[in-house]
Write a structure and sequence with these properties.
Layout (H helix, E strand, L loop, with lengths): L11 H23 L6 H66 L5 H7 L3 H71 L4 H25 L6 H11 L18 H11 L8 H4 L4 E3 L9 E4 L4 E7 L2 E4 L8 E4 H4 L2 E6 L1
Antiparallel strand pairs: 1-6, 2-3, 2-6, 3-4, 4-5
Helix pairs in contact: 2-4, 3-4, 6-7
């Protein structure tokens, strides 16, 4: 006789697993269908440029904090040396006071009127009493010097402690800005890595062509420099064209933006400060319409600086991965201010 068993029904667990798998497959298919398209080369470049500007802002803040740290360390060293010398002087004063006290003790602790009554030679006693008075006066003077030196040392120690606290804050700022700069640069590199080798090479060649074209425009401009100093600084910077941008570098073989301007003016015989945020406060502010070769031009909320080269062109160290070059002011970023040293 044929068997008429009912077919076995799938278990609830099996149904659940199958349903979940099917749902996941549908979700993945849906995500693939709606995935964002790969960014174009121009989109990647725009995002990378923005990240480089943000990294440069952090770098300039880092440079400022580093400069402040170096200054504080020198001040603290000088204060600590001063405190050590002051302590030595105080120890000498205390030693002198001890000698005076011993001399006074040897003169005797008897009341002067009794000493006079007992003295066999009153004249000799009066001489000794006068010497004792002098010892007492010297002792008083030494005590006053010791008290003054103690007050001075206490003030110097407090000043050193305050500067050490400031130094700790500056070192914290240094670390934060270094980390932020590195994070932005890493993000920019990840974006660049989404391009093919050929696309990255094409981007590099485009930058080189734009730089050469900007340099040619400068030659055609023939503008009168701001001053002999500005002309000398621009000429010095021109010898660095092609040198790589390196964060916090000040030359002569690599630079960041403010490192290049500082180096160029140093070659011309003028010492200017280290960062964009301080360089903008040097010299005389001028309008964009007044720009002449050699002037400092600031962009992007004062986070970037270059030397005006004439014909709406700037010579600058652009950003990591790039080289010192000429570039149109229209492609660098938003104009902020200009200064004539």
């Amino acid at each position: 006789m044929a068997s008429h068993r009912r077919p076995k029904q799938p278990s609830r667990t099996r149904v659940t697993v199958l349903t979940a798998t099917a749902a996941a497959a549908v979700a993945l298919t849906s995500q693939a269908a709606h995935a964002d398209p790969k960014p174009t080369k121009s989109e990647v470049k725009a995002k990378v440029d923005k990240l480089y500007h943000e990294a440069e802002t952090a770098t300039e803040k880092y440079n400022g904090a580093k400069e402040q740290q170096d200054k504080l360390e020198k001040q603290i060293g000088a204060l600590q040396d001063k405190v050590a010398r002051g302590q030595q002087e105080l120890n000498t004063l205390r030693g002198g006071l001890g000698s005076l006290a011993a001399a006074q003790y040897r003169s005797g602790g008897i009341d002067p009127s009794v000493q006079l009554f007992l003295a066999s030679d009153p004249d000799s006693f009066l001489d000794e009493a006068s010497a004792l008075d002098q010892l007492t006066a010297k002792q008083t003077e030494s005590l006053e010097k010791i008290q003054e030196k103690q007050r001075s040392l206490a003030q110097q120690r407090k000043e050193a402690q305050d500067k050490l606290a400031d130094l700790a804050d500056v070192r914290k700022t240094l670390g934060e800005n270094k980390k932020k700069s590195q994070s932005k640069l890493a993000e920019a590199q990840r974006l660049l890595n989404t391009l093919t080798v050929a696309e990255r090479e094409k981007m590099r060649q485009d930058d080189q062509r734009a730089s050469r074209a900007a340099g040619d425009r400068v030659d055609l401009g023939n503008e009168v420099p701001a001053s002999a100093l500005g002309a000398a600084a621009l000429q010095a910077a021109d010898t660095r064209v092609g040198k790589p941008y390196v964060r916090s570098a000040t030359g002569p073989n690599s630079f960041d933006c403010s490192g290049l301007t500082q180096w160029a003016y140093a070659q011309a015989g003028a010492q200017i400060t280290r960062t964009t945020y301080t360089q903008i406060n040097q010299g005389t502010r001028i309008a964009r319409s007044q720009l002449k070769p050699g002037d400092l031009v600031f962009f992007n909320n004062t986070s970037h600086v270059g030397l005006y080269a004439g014909n709406n062109t700037v010579l600058h160290a652009p950003y990591p991965g790039a080289y010192v070059r000429y570039e149109s002011m229209n492609t660098i970023g938003s104009f902020q201010a200009a200064v004539r040293i």
